């Protein structure tokens, strides 16, 4: 049983593992602290004939106990999470996946996702561009590179089923990449409150076979593209 939406990406499980690791480590620590608190509440509770007293204790023992506790927490939680986070980052963002990637430009605005694919010439912002609104299609098991730039305010491109999220900022091109491993229709959400119509920022990402994807692209190519927005792909560093 998973606490998250279905994982439909090649590396989404790495993000899930980090979450469960952090939950496990902090959960065990929380239970230990609460258990010690309960023990002290019971053992040192008020009783008839018992007089409260204060002691400074042993400064040496207190120092050693505090140092040991700090080192235990540091290595068991902080270092442990840092190591796992490093390897998860390398697998998720450290390098582009192998294969022939699909290049897609996304320019969100209040309150829609403008999506554009290069046409037959393989270049953006030309007359054969393929554009759509709130509808993104990608082929199965093929890398996808997305360039983002907001048309107005800050939006956040969020794919819950792929465990990725990236802000879209006005005047700045940001990018992300993923590879879908399961066919289906998945949500595209805006994870940044972008105005009164924020609730309308819902798109659909359809993952399909290569044949179905090419068929969809052919159908879209017959429509008149919108070339009034966007930027040149050469501005994006990958």
How are the SSEs placed, and which strands pair?
Elements lengths: L11 H32 L15 H36 L7 E8 L2 E6 L12 E4 L1 E5 L3 E6 L6 E5 L4 E5 L5 E6 L4 E7 L11 E7 L1 H12 L17
Q: Tally of extended strands?
A: 10
Low-pLDDT stretches: 232-238
Strand content: 15-25%
Q: Whole-number radius of gyration?
A: 26 Å
Give the overall form. elongated
Question: Terminal Cα separation, in Å?
Answer: 36 Å
Strand order of the largest sheet: 3-2-1-5-8
- The name of the CATH architecture of the largest domain is Sandwich
- Secondary structure: helix percent: 25-40%
- The total count of helices amounts to 3
CATH topology of the largest domain: Immunoglobulin-like
What are the salient characteristics of this protein?
238 residues, single chain, 5-stranded mixed β-sheet, Immunoglobulin-like, 2 domains, alpha+beta, disordered C terminus
Mind explaining what this structure looks like?
- With 238 residues, this protein is α+β, with helices and mostly antiparallel strands.
- It is built from three helices and ten strands; from the N terminus they run ααββββββββββα.
- Helix 1 runs antiparallel to helix 2.
- The strands form two sheets. The protein has a five-stranded mixed beta sheet. Strands 4-10-9-6-7 form a five-stranded mixed beta sheet, covered by helices on one side.
- The chain has two domains: 83 residues, no CATH class; 126 residues, Immunoglobulin-like (Sandwich).
- A hairpin with a 2-residue loop joins strand 1 and strand 2.
